[in-house]
Task: inverse folding
């Protein structure tokens, strides 16, 4: 199995990408610490892992809290003896996040606290645990908006994901000779609750799909497969990468649906 004898901590594991990754990592032999603020969803993820014969433990932590982040890492080491895979995946997309003129400071602050500071705190407490284990893999969930600008603005979300990508590159360099790899997963638009709540009409969904060469939204399990690759030794020479899994979105200038190719 691709992750046998590994211990993985996944934030945002109550739903979407985090849950899909928790199930897939466990299926591939990892013991999984599932972290979230949604206790019902988090416990459900763990129950699903036990149903498929794996090992997991749920831990409630707000990734924006220093205490929470420290305690989730301590829990992993206490429960399973070590930590080698850290998937900083929890994130929020707030409805009131728009352009620079209209976005309230409170929306900016909370988005940064969860999406950017949360990843920093995960690394602050998680990387020393990876060092204690002799090395490992960190995966930070960024987004295609860390690479491309959008005309439908979510200024705080976009800035937070740009920060995640920049921070990932620097961490990768700093820890490259410690057997610790750090990569950013950059998903395209996905058919998860987060985005479907935001694109709440068929018209908005079709408008977004114009930009995706494959003409469909990605699925959480497709992100989980990419995360599994980054977590496993199969990606042993990959660090500091912006790993786009986006149906061709960031490669496209004009997509097959658009009338002109000028
Ligand atoms: P999701 O809403 O299904 O999952 C996010 C999870 O994070 C939820 O379970 C939520 O409870 C948890 N969470 C939120 N705030 C938290 C906090 N402070 N502490 C701990 N847990 C917290 O969404 P998803 O699509 O699976 O998103 C996962 C990641 O992928 C996010 O970082 C998101 O920004 C990113 N992403 C999503 C898309 C998309 O289209 N859905 C695209 C690009 C990137």
Result:
């Amino acid at each position: 199995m691709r992750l046998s004898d590994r211990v993985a901590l996944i934030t945002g594991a109550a739903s979407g990408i985090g849950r899909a990754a928790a199930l897939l990592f466990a299926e591939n032999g990892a013991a999984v610490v599932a972290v979230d603020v949604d206790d019902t969803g988090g416990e459900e993820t763990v129950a699903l892992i036990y149903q498929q014969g794996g090992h997991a433990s749920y831990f409630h932590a707000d990734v924006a809290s220093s205490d929470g982040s420290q305690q989730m890492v301590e829990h992993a080491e206490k429960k399973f003896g070590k930590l080698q895979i850290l998937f900083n995946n929890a994130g929020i997309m707030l409805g009131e996040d728009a352009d620079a003129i209209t976005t309230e400071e409170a929306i900016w602050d909370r988005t940064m606290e969860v999406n950017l500071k949360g990843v920093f705190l995960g690394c602050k407490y998680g990387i020393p645990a990876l060092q204690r284990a002799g090395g490992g893999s960190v995966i930070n969930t960024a987004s295609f908006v860390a690479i491309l600008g959008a005309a439908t603005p979510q200024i705080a979300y976009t800035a937070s994901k740009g920060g995640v990508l920049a921070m990932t590159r620097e961490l990768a360099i700093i820890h490259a000779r410690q057997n610790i790899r750090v990569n950013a997963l950059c998903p395209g638009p996905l058919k998860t609750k987060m985005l479907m709540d935001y694109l709440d009409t068929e018209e908005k969904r079709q408008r977004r799909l114009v930009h995706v060469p494959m003409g469909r939204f990605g699925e959480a399990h497709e992100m989980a497969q990419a995360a599994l690759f980054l977590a496993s030794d199969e990606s042993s020479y990959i660090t500091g990468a912006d790993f786009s899994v986006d149906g061709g979105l960031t490669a496209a200038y004009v997509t097959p649906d658009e009338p002109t190719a000028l």
Observations:
- The chain is about 45% helix and 15% strand.
- The CA atoms of residues 109 and 128 lie 27 Å apart.
- The pocket of nicotinamide-adenine-dinucleotide is lined by residues 11-12, 14-18, 36-38, 41, 62-64, 89-92, 114, 141, 143, 187, 189-190, 192-195, 220 (CB under 6 Å).
